[in-house]
Amino acid sequence: MKANRIAVFASGRGSNFQALVEAQRKGLLGAEIRLLVCDKPEAPVVELAKAADVDVFVFQPKAYASKEAYEREIVTELDRRDVDLLVLAGYMRLLSPSFVETYSGRIVNIHPSLLPAFPGKDAIGQAIEYGVKMTGVTVHFVDGGMDTGPVIAQRAVEVREGDDAAALAERIHEVEQKLYYEVVSWFAEGRVSLNGRHVTIADKVQEVEH
Ligand code: GRF
C-alpha cells in the first residue's frame, strides 16, 4: 500500500506531531502532512500546527449529538484533502467501528509499550508499576479494539533502576519521535503490506544510477 497524504490525530502536547513536521521539513517523511485533527481546542499541538502552516480541524466533542456526528465532519475534512493515511499520535478518543471500517488498513497509532503488554492508558506508569526491565514503543494498525491491531514496528527501551515515570517517558518519547516518521516513510514508499495480523516491510528499492 502506498500512502503519502497524511492527517495526524492528536489531543495533547504534540511532540510526535512536531517530530513528523520536522521530518517533513528535512525531506525524511516522504509524505505530506495535510491536516491536524484535534478534539481539544486548548491543546498545545494546535499551536504547533499553526506555526507549521498545517491545516487544523479542531472540534469540541460535547458540541455534537454523537461520535458519528463529529466523525462525519472529520471524514469531510479528510476527503477534501485526499488524505490516504491517518496517523494517530496521542489522540485520546476511541474511533467508532464504522470510522475504523471506512479507513481499514489506513489508520496507524503509536503506543508507549511493547504491545500486547500494557495497552490502554498510562502504559509507562503500568510498566513501572509491574516492574518490567524492558518496555518500549509500538506502531500498529488500528482495529476495533484498544491497542490490539497488527504490529508494524517495535523498539525496546530499557527500564533503569530508579526510573520514575517521567524519566522513562523521556527516553520512550525520544524513541517514538525517531520511529514514527520512519514508519510513515515506509508507507510513502509503498513498502508496508498487511496479511491477516502479519505486517511485512519490503526492502527499500535501491535507486539505480545511469
Ligand atoms: C505518546 O507517548 C504516544 O505514544 C501516546 O500518546 C503520547 C503522545 O505524546 N499514544 P505527544 O502528544 O506526541 O507528545
Automatic annotation (TrEMBL):
Matches recorded under SUPFAM superfamilies: Formyltransferase
Keyword DNA repair: no
Keywords: Purine biosynthesis, Transferase
This protein's pathway: Purine metabolism; IMP biosynthesis via de novo pathway; N(2)-formyl-N(1)-(5-phospho-D-ribosyl)glycinamide from N(1)-(5-phospho-D-ribosyl)glycinamide (10-formyl THF route): step 1/1
The protein's enzyme class: transferase
Pfam families: Formyl_trans_N
CDD domains: FMT_core_GART
InterPro entries: Formyl_transf_N (IPR002376), Formyl_transf_N_sf (IPR036477), GART (IPR004607)
GO cellular component, one term: cytosol
Catalysis: reaction(s): N(1)-(5-phospho-beta-D-ribosyl)glycinamide + (6R)-10-formyltetrahydrofolate = N(2)-formyl-N(1)-(5-phospho-beta-D-ribosyl)glycinamide + (6S)-5,6,7,8-tetrahydrofolate + H(+)
Domain Formyl transferase N-terminal: 5-184
Enzyme Commission designation: 2.1.2.2
GO molecular function: phosphoribosylglycinamide formyltransferase activity
UniProt-annotated site: Raises pKa of active site His, residues: D147
Residues that hold N(1)-(5-phospho-beta-D-ribosyl)glycinamide according to the record: G14, S15, N16
Family affiliation: Belongs to the GART family.
Described function: Catalyzes the transfer of a formyl group from 10-formyltetrahydrofolate to 5-phospho-ribosyl-glycinamide (GAR), producing 5-phospho-ribosyl-N-formylglycinamide (FGAR) and tetrahydrofolate.
Record's protein name: Phosphoribosylglycinamide formyltransferase
Organism annotation: Paenibacillus lactis 154
Gene label: purN
